[in-house]
Structure formats: structure tokens, C-alpha cells
Amino acid sequence: MAGTFAFAISGATAARKRNLDLFGICAIAFIVACGGGIIRDLCIGATPPAGISNWQYLIVAIIATGLTVGLFSVVERLNRPVLFFDAVGLSLFAVTGAEKALHFGHNGEVAVLLGITTAVGGGVMRDVLLTRVPVILEKEIYASAALTAAAIVVLGNYLNWISGDWVAIIALIVCFTIRILALHYHWNLPTPVNRKNKLTK
Amino acid sequence: MAGTFAFAISGATAARKRNLDLFGICAIAFIVACGGGIIRDLCIGATPPAGISNWQYLIVAIIATGLTVGLFSVVERLNRPVLFFDAVGLSLFAVTGAEKALHFGHNGEVAVLLGITTAVGGGVMRDVLLTRVPVILEKEIYASAALTAAAIVVLGNYLNWISGDWVAIIALIVCFTIRILALHYHWNLPTPVNRKNKLTK
Amino acid sequence: MAGTFAFAISGATAARKRNLDLFGICAIAFIVACGGGIIRDLCIGATPPAGISNWQYLIVAIIATGLTVGLFSVVERLNRPVLFFDAVGLSLFAVTGAEKALHFGHNGEVAVLLGITTAVGGGVMRDVLLTRVPVILEKEIYASAALTAAAIVVLGNYLNWISGDWVAIIALIVCFTIRILALHYHWNLPTPVNRKNKLTK
Hints:
The structure is a homotrimer of 201-residue chains. Chain A has 201 residues and is mainly alpha-helical.
């Protein structure tokens, strides 16, 4: 829930900065928080998606909207905690997404891809609706951290050396650590074109 | 069908203004008319979605394209009727979307969210494909009217005081009235940033 | 597979030109190659979609990314072969998409619409993620070729004069020929607004 809340806050903040109205802010907050999970549930055939059948997500989105609109100065000062919870959410979503896909009897590739989708899908939908190229495709170690977590879950499930709970905890810690370190040291994945531009200078 | 037609006309008009070719105009007309219903059907597991298995929708989209391309000056003069039928379509889509979700045995939240999705999903997809921030997220009482209609359907279904048909009629009238009044008096939901801008002036 | 590869190369090239990072390029390559098929599978209720449950697609996307990043000058010179394989992919995707929908017991309209979706869906998702109006909606005989192929499959299936394999081969050849001729002679569908602009000059 802390992760969902951080995702909703990040959505509401982005929406507010683009001058959306109250409904728009709430819709974007909800989509960031639930969009990834909804795509995952559609892909594994779990209808209706948990994101829309569970009141909690909607309430979290409404609270996030209220906070962002009413106490914007507070939310702005909360930038660091929000990034912290966003990393928590990223880790949790990637792990639970991968676990849910495995639980529905799908293979490892489905689990890895849907783990990433759960973690980053909402953010991508936010960027598409606000008509900007999704941040996670341009830079930052974000989806890669989710990929690592989902891969650990799948690997742990195949090897079956330790219980699933321990695998999940390890995956969470690894993903969270990668993300926080990437934020702190401004790690980015290489972007090939930039490298080429440097060469041509 | 009048609602579907109005939606298709609005899609074809927007597509034509962006210099799309004949196929593009028809595709956007079809997506505005059926996109919301397709998402709803995917979410409740009703495959294949009615929008793509039913010839009528496609024919409506083709007729709307033909009219918009062949008789553009007529369509432009029809701006008021189109807004009128658009409000009819909005009400009908919100009510039938909520009813279909309830009919498939889903809970009230699913019905409300999918009622809104049915009503506004096509328009959002149009705006995303034409790369602009969806109008309904920025201003205008549009999704809010759909929300009201869907909520009335769900509430009427729970209370069960009067027959479902009467509930649907009341929801339709309320939604239609809100939308027409909002159009007439240029009602908008507050956008928090604008309010802040005024304060800082 | 040649078609999938051409689609993945076209996605990776477009992503590279927009300065995406390695993950972004690979994600776009994967989406162009599999996006259309995933939407089709969701619409016919074939979960999980083949695109995400089959390792081959992911590996093709990774190889395409590697080639585009490592040997960009080679890929750029391959522009003609890529357009050739893209036409092959377009034809194959349209035919197999329509066949798969028929195979799942859906009607002709579903098959035609999903044939087109399989063929062009990935490209549309690429353009939406890179925030540009989808090329196929603006000009070029592209979706129309896919439409023709899917229509031939459905018609052949109804008439049942010759075996399904022959129908598929004819549909492939017709679609491929239309696309190559359209590329060679720069055929476009008429765009109504341009015509009007000329009249007003």
C-alpha cells in the first residue's frame, strides 16, 4: 500500500503540473497506481483486474489527489520520501507481479515480462496520457531494477532451494538497493546515440 | 446508435483536422465509437469485445467517415447537433457500461469505473493517437457526468427500490442534463494550478 | 520470424533516433514485434498472449537491439532490405492474425479487424510511445494492404473453394505486392483536408 500511495502521489503531482482538473489528477493518480497491474491481469486472464475490483486502490488515489491538491507545498517538500516509497513500490510491484503470473501457472518469461509491466506500466501510461516519451525508456535504472527483481523471483522458483518468501525478500532488497543506488549516484543505462554524438565531436 | 454515430462523427472530424488519410479517419472514428466498450469487455472477460464482433459499429464508423469527408461543410454546421448526440452517447454508454459490468456479476466499483471507461475511453484513445493531452482530463464536466450516471445505476441496483429500467432512465436523464448544462454555462471542474496562479499574482 | 525481425529492427531504429537508452530500445523493438499480436490475443481471449509466453520473440527483439546499437551503420544501409522484410512481416501478421481469430471460432469481421490489428498494432504502439501521430494513420498504403490480406483470408474461408493454405498464400502475395508497389510508386490514400486546401488556394 505504501508503494501504491507513492505511485499515486507521483501521478497526481505530474498531472497537477500539467494543469489537469480535479478529475484528471485523480484519474492519472489511479492509472499510475493500478495501470500496470490491470495490464498484467488482462494478460493472465484474471478478470476483472484487481485494480478495478478492489476499493482500496481507488481510495488511495483519491487521498493522493486530495493531498497533492490541498497540501501541494507539503508534497513538494516530500520529494525525497516519495522517491523512497516509489522505490519500495517498484520493488513490491515487480515481485508480486512475477509471483502472480507464476501462481496462475505461466512460464518464467511471462512472469519476468509481467513483473516489469506491473512495476512500470502505470508510469508509462501516465507519460503517454501526458504526451511525453516515457521517462523509463529514455534514462534511469528503473525498469532494469524491476527486471532484476522479477528474474530473481523466477529463478528462485525454478531452483527451489529456499522458500518462496525468502526469494521474494531477496528480490525486494536487491531491486530496492539497485534503485536507491541508481538515484543516489545518477546511474543511467548507456544511450547509444549520445555516445555516437560524442565520437563525432 | 445515435450516440455511437455522434462519437464516430467527433472522431472523424478530429482526425480530418489532423490531415489523416481516409483509413486514418475511419480508424479514429471507429476507435472513438468502440474503444471504450472494447476496454470494458476486455476487463470483464467478455471476449471477443462487442465492438469488434458486431458489424453495426464498423458500418457506423464508415458512414461517419463518408459524411465527414464528403460533406464536411454540412458536418461543420452540425456542430450543435453533434454535441447534443455526443451527450446522448455519453449518457447511454455510461449506463450500459455499468449495467453490463453488473450483469456479468461484478461489484459496484467495477461497474462505476467501467461505466466511465465505456463512456470516455474512446475519446481518450483518440486524443492519445493524435498526441494531445486528453481533453477530458484537462477541463469540462464530461467524465464527471458519466461517473454520476454509473453511480446512479449501481446505487439503484443495490437499493433495488424501483425496477432497473427506471434506474437506467433516471441515470440517463441526470447525466444528459449535467452535460448539456455544463456545455451551456461552460462549467469546468476547478484546476488547482490555475487557482494557485491567481493567488501568486 | 523474418517479419518479426524486420519489425523489431524498425522499432529499434526509431527508438535509437529518439535517444532512448538500451532498455528503451529493446522495449520498443519488442513492442513493435509483438504488440499487435498481444492485443489480438487479448481480444480473442487467448491468455497469456503468445508474444509474451514465447521466448523467441524476446530473443529476436534483443538481437535486433544488439544489431541496431552495435552495427548502426550496417543497419542504416539495410534500409531497403528492412522495408522488404517489413512488407513480408506485414503480410504474414495480417494473414496469421485473421486465421487465428477464425480458428478461435470468431466471425469474419473479428478476423478482418484483428488481422489488421496484428499487422499494424505494434507500429501504432511504437508511435504512441514516441509521442508522434501514427504514420499509418497519416499516409501510405500500409494498413490497407493488411486489410486486403485479412479480407481475402475471411472470404476464402467462407467460400471454401480452395484449401486454406492456398487462400493464405494468395493473401500473402496480394498484400506483399500492394505494399511493395505502394512503396515503389509512393502511393498514398487521399487525405481529404489537403484536397480542400488546394481548392481554397
